[in-house]
Amino acid sequence: MAVTVRWLLAQRDLGLDLRAGAAAVDAPISFVITTELADPTPWLAGGEMLLTTGLGIPPGDDGCRDYVRRLTGRGVRALGFGVGVSRASAPSALVAAADEFGLALVDVPLPTPFVAVARTVIDEIARRANASRAAAGRAQQRMTRAAVTGGPSATLRELAVACGGSAMLLDRSGRIVQAHPADVDPAAARAVGAQVRAHLTASAVGPAGSAGPRATVVTQPIRVGDRGHGHLGVLLPDDPSPADHTLIGHANSLLALDFERPLRLRLAQWRMNAAALRLVLSAGGDPGEAAQLVAEAADPSGLRALVIRGSADPEALVTAVRTALHTAGRPVFAAAAGAAGAVVVLLGGDDGPAFADALVAGLAPRECAR
User: Fold this and answer.
1) Angstrom distance (rounded) from CA 106 to CA 31
2) CA-to-CA separations, 164 to 25, 47, 212, 250, in angstroms, rounded
3) Would you say 5 and 104 are in contact if contact means Cβ atoms under 8 Å apart?
4) Which of 28, 263, 298, 315 is deepest in the core (most CB within 10 A)?
């Protein structure tokens, strides 16, 4: 959690003024420290704003330039110069070096205590952290409700929205079987799969390749005891926050619960789904609540119907389709329909021809047509 230099400058009660390094005003500040050391970098971790009256800054143009170079090399985000104490203003060489190395140089007026600057930053970071935790708690509630009514697809959707990225369900080999949004960048998808295959039994965080300079992939195995059920992958536009990790862990638990649901309950649910689908497809009558149940197969883009023909044993094909849908993390709606051995399958609106082809390709008998 951090604030930016731009945000700090906007706190008018502090009276701060940007002297140099305008290109760095969006740099994030995670901590504020006061120092008069000529070289404080051994005691810094990066992300800080340094406050100084200039007593320790080496003299001369070369001294100022080397001072700023060391700070930026260590990851310091901003330098606050207390004017009116040891010097009336920041040395011109310091101003030039800040512009050269991209370090935000801020004048701190004499009436503003350094501790006020530090307290302002600390309080705002704490406020944002509390707001983030509260938002994560609300997102967890939405995710849980979605998981109950919509299964893995709804869980992924809520996770993607809450984290501001993409959420993917992968099988045990690292192949993406479901994603939200559905149009994941191919290069990013490959990065997710590669990370899963490199860490089949452990969580991992790594770069997302061409998805962006700060884009990050988080992957976790979905396991209960010694039983593995695939992997959860999340593509984020930036480094994952503590709230992101909390939400990803919660989604993982919900997915594990869904996979661990007793088989007899799953079979009963699938039979009920099939009965509702047949009622909706039948001519005449009011399907009533059956239509509402069938609507659970929809995603934000709606529904698609896949019709598989040519099977000599429709019931066996229905069983295979149900297993394939469950493995892919989709709501299971499949039923034999008509006298020609056809099987009707409901898919989400985002499930395009590629998903349908992959689903059919894994079925037996192979000769069925779509």
Assistant:
1) 15
2) 24, 23, 14, 16
3) yes
4) 298
Alpha-carbon distance of 16 to 37, in angstroms, equals 22
Rounded distance, CA 158 to CA 27, Å? 30
**Whether the Cβ atoms of residue 167 and residue 156 lie closer than 8 Å to each other:** yes
Token representation of residue 117: 């600057």
The per-residue pLDDT for range 271-307, each reduced to its tens digit, is: 888 888 888 887 665 667 777 778 878 876 788 889 8
Tokens 């239509």, residue located: 291
Q: Which residue, chain included where needed, has tokens 């709230």?
A: 243
Quick check: helix, strand or coil at residue 208?
coil
Fill in the DSSP letter of residue 210.
Answer: G
CB-based contacts of 154, cutoff 8 Å, min separation 6: 146, 147
Q: By three-state DSSP, how is residue 39 classified?
A: coil
- Per the CB < 8 A criterion, the answer to whether 322 and 270 are in contact is yes
Q: What is the pLDDT of residues 19-71, one digit of tens each?
A: 999 999 999 999 999 999 999 999 999 999 999 999 999 989 999 999 999 99
Angstrom distance (rounded) from CA 180 to CA 151: 13
Burial of 166 (0-12, 13-18, 19+ CB in 10 A): buried
Pairing status of strand 176-180 against strand 342-348? unpaired
Per DSSP bridges, beta strands 227-236 and 303-308 are unpaired
- Residues 6+ positions from 113 with CB-CB distance below 8 Å: none
Q: Of 261, 21, 266, 243, whose CA–CA distance to 143 is shortest?
A: 243
| Residue whose structure tokens are 């480094």 | 239
Q: What does each C-alpha distance from 119 to 8, 33, 85, 132 come to in angstroms?
A: 11, 11, 21, 20
Amino acid letter, 24? A
Provide the 3-class DSSP secondary structure of residue 277.
Answer: helix
